[in-house]
UniProtKB/TrEMBL annotation:
FAD binds at K53, G117, T146, G147, S148, D316, M322, L323, A324, H325. The active site is a redox-active disulfide bond. This is Dihydrolipoyl dehydrogenase. Residues 6-331 form the FAD/NAD(P)-binding domain. Keywords: Disulfide bond, FAD, Flavoprotein, NAD, Nucleotide-binding, Oxidoreductase, Redox-active center. Residues 350-458 form the Pyridine nucleotide-disulphide oxidoreductase dimerisation domain.
Length: 469
């Protein structure tokens, strides 16, 4: 095989693409990954999951020191926030992580090609470097993992300084006095939390009648109350009809989604966070006749095959949950299929976590979905107020809710609002993966005192025999 000829060429070095490339190489396939950003890790490592969590951790530490340590008897004096140092922490975390992927590529003998990939024909990818130089890569299989980009709001121009997307909101140099977030979803609440903790007055304008509209209804309600108590202002059932830059500020016009009187809101920073859209610009899909669906996603079958033999697609660009771990699972499954193995992703057991505090973690069906699908279920709920560890941590907000089949007791869904909810959810994801019953989790010994006991108790509650409530 010549230097530019591979078994597999992956276009896009995000969690879908880089993981597919590593797994394919592990399985003995000669693999290259083409990435145009100049750094590996995609949206997630560069402008998504990792930088947002670095800012969430830093702002959490500030808020805890400023407002919560006193309750433990810890006296810290005047607490101040150095936003530039916080951004420095974030940049270092991002750079360490992206360089880590380069190391993993070397270790696994994946060829990293820097440049924009364009499919010119099946098995043929043209790579254009930043300086315009072109090269050609040939491969038996092309994997598209080009991810997603911010969904724009018509009539609202993002300048990444006053009117920002998540990328601009991750890079603000100072804390705005006022911030309006358009969209009460994951990005809006996570990045709204970062800047609220540092002192911004945050107003969330949400088109629907609740925040986190895809979560379980009880979770949305609970988080609305908790976040309002933290200082968030919510304007639900409200649409933004315009947002214009006016000097160093922005002026938004909003009105009730159902129609009614318009109102103006001024803000130092406006964050547009109304979802993400698949990214296929410059990819050359038209050269091979791959049509996207009405929303721009690339249609694939159960084996991630596009309509063209030898061209596959995974991750955000194919739709479904736009989550890094979902993209990674697809990357592994596809690589294994390409190597003749039986890769598989269980889409019923994909966790989703919102890293506010308390965190929100969910897997499987919501109560609303079970009702709509006519599935008989039992619900078990346990509040953190009744958990000894949570009390000792002063972290008693939230609950664990487990939904199980009324006849088989199999776990169908789980929803947690609480401290470290994301980590606590893992055992329930595992339970669903193994087809376990709520009684299986309830009969498993959990260490005491632990937050995990709330998970056990919620499962006991499904059976009608919680011990501590
Ligand atoms: P991407 O990560 O988008 O990677 C695609 C890559 O392809 C990009 O680097 C792009 O430069 C490259 N590319 C595109 N076209 C070409 C081309 N023609 N040639 C070469 N390269 C190309 N998910 C979570 O699970 N947990 C989180 O906490 C989380 N937090 C997030 C926070 C924010 C602010 C955002 C915006 C997203 C967050 N996500 C989170 C979502 C997560 O980032 C995505 O689901 C994930 O990155 C998708 O992976 P992917 O590989 O499909 O695509
Ligand atoms: P989202 O889909 O989570 O939320 C968008 C919100 O905007 C919804 O509540 C929607 O009803 C609302 N909305 C839509 N149009 C609107 C309008 N015109 N006016 C007002 N509100 C409007 O999308 P978000 O927050 O932009 O995140 C994008 C993706 O990134 C998500 O799919 C998510 O999976 C991923 N992500 C994941 C994170 C995590 O796993 N912790 C963190 C951040 C992002």
């Amino acid at each position: 095989m010549s230097e530019n000829t591979f078994d597999v060429v992956v276009i896009g070095g995000g969690p879908g693409g880089y993981v597919a490339a590593i797994r394919a190489a592990q399985l003995g396939l000669k693999t290259a990954c083409v990435e145009k950003r100049g750094a590996l890790g995609g949206t997630c490592l560069n402008v998504g999951c990792i930088p947002s969590k670095a800012l969430l951790s830093a702002s959490h530490a500030y808020e805890a020191a400023a407002h919560h340590y006193g309750a433990f008897g810890v006296k810290v004096g005047k607490v101040e926030m150095d936003v530039a140092a916080m951004q420095g922490h974030k940049d270092k975390v991002v750079s360490d992580n992206t360089k880590g992927i380069e190391f993993l590529f070397k270790k696994n003998k994946v060829t990293y090609i820097v440049g924009a990939g364009t499919i010119t024909a099946p098995g043929q990818v043209k790579v254009t470097a930043k300086d315009g130089a072109e090269s050609q890569v040939t491969a038996k299989v092309i994997v598209i993992a080009t991810g997603s980009d911010v969904t724009p709001l018509p009539g609202v121009e993002i300048d990444e300084e006053v009117i920002v997307s998540s990328t601009g909101a991750l890079a603000l140099k100072k804390t705005p006095k006022t911030m309006v977030v358009i969209g009460g979803g994951v990005i809006g609440l996570e990045l709204g939390t970062v800047w609220r903790r540092l002192g911004a007055e945050v107003t969330v304008v949400e088109f629907l009648d609740r925040i986190l509209p895809t979560n379980d209804g009880e979770v949305s309600k609970s988080m609305h109350k908790i976040l309002a108590k933290q200082g968030f202002t919510f304007k639900l059932g409200t649409k933004v009809t315009s947002a214009k830059k006016a000097g160093k500020h922005a002026v938004l016009t909003v009105e009730p989604a159902a129609g009614g009187a318009a109102e103006e809101i001024k803000a130092d920073v406006v964050l547009v966070a109304i979802g993400r859209k698949p990214y296929t610009e410059g990819l050359g899909l038209e050269n091979v006749g791959i049509a996207t669906d009405a929303r721009g996603f690339i249609p694939v079958n159960g084996h991630y095959q596009t309509s063209v033999p030898g061209i596959y697609a995974i991750g955000d660009v194919v739709g479904g949950a736009m989550l890094a771990h979902k993209a990674e699972e697809e990357g592994v499954a596809l690589a294994e299929m390409l190597a003749g193995q039986h890769g598989h992703v269980n889409y019923d057991a994909i966790p989703a976590v919102v890293y506010t505090w308390p965190e929100v973690a969910a897997v499987g069906k919501t109560e609303e979905q079970l009702k709509a699908e006519g599935i008989a279920y039992k619900a078990g709920k346990f509040p953190f107020t009744a958990n000894g560890r949570a009390r000792s941590m002063n972290e008693t907000e939230g609950f664990v809710k487990v939904l199980a089949c009324a006849t088989t007791d199999r776990v169908l869904g789980a929803h947690i609002v609480g401290p470290n909810a994301g980590d606590l959810l893992a055992e329930l994801v595992m339970a669903m993966e193994f087809g376990a019953a709520s009684e299986d989790v309830a009969r498993t010994c959990h260490s005491h005192p632990g937050l995990g006991e709330a998970v056990k108790e919620a499962c006991l509650a499904v059976l009608g025999r919680a011990l501590h409530i």
